[in-house]
Amino acid sequence: MSPSMQKKPFAVIAKPVGSRCNMHCRYCYYLEKYRFSEHEQQNRMSYSLLEKLIRQTIDASPGPMVSFTWHGGEPTLAGIEFYERVVTFQKKYLPRGWQVINNLQTNGLLLDDKWCDFIVENGFDVGISIDGAQCVHDANRLDMGGNATYERVRAAVERLKGRGIDPDILCTVTSNSAENPLLTYRALRDLGVAWIQFIPVLVRFDDGSMSPESVSAEAYGRFLTEIFDEWVTHDLGKTDVQLFAETAKVWAGGRAALCWMAQTCGRVLVVEEDGGVYSCDHFVDSEHRLGTMPVDRLDRLLNSVCQTEFGNAKRDSLTSQCRKCPYLTVCGGGCLKDRFGVADGGEQGQYYLCRGLFEFFEHSKPIMEEVMRLSRLGKTPEQIMERLNKKK
Asked: Quick check: is 166 catalytic?
């Protein structure tokens, strides 16, 4: 097989119930995606489509690791029996010696004892969305009846931890939480979890204005910087923050695994409950619908000209300001969906959060380099934190 024809790693984000959800978060961008479904009313992905999705994903994968993310909407609405079929089909088609990673990204409301038992028995990774402190979370993350959800989500985290599962925490950064960075971070850290992701909320209306929940570039930069200073002097080696870990990886000579930080994208396909295949989770629209399973094969859509051009546009459409930036290697120009800012010279298409991230990188780089230097010398996280605190 020629190098150009060799299978390359990719991942699938599957939406078993489409955009259907049992919550109505104020900043959610996905609830309206039902209008792009070919089904009059979104239901649950059929078992025949599920089987084809799993088989084609495995067939297109270079192995020996195959990744599936079960997302939504709220994926637990599909029911445990749906995921029992997932496991059955994966065992049926997975080659000997290969492994599968299943990640369930959930709001946690349905994670009762039965769900937790299933997750443990089948080795699913779990990501739970929770927005820091209760006052911040409950300001935006409401159920369909308009009721607060924090206590139910926190209970789900505890239920998982009680079974030895350490869930990843996904925390959105809104205009509200950005004003309370340490309150937000400490509330998440005190849940006793090992991995935290911060996802900035950016919702832009057709008239160019931003939603009230959207975070500004400056506020986002301050948010990250304050949390970084707390983390690097108190929680090093105990709690990982995704952006900090990925940034350190790049500065150590590696490559970021996060798509928005990478040079190009396009290797994470979205498959909706009607079989629609899209370029990206943030581009579920008519323009970026690549095809429909099972009429169209997943591998052909993944390697199509349209998808390749979509992925390369991340690199090819950079502004001149981005191309000259000393932090392009860690920022990657940001996500395509958020390139609606204006560069210093007036050029359109600048990453909206550029200014804030620049300030964060400026602040954190010398500290991270010192941490990595001390780590190479064999210093423990406790010793490193002690030295940083003395300098501080």
From this structure: no
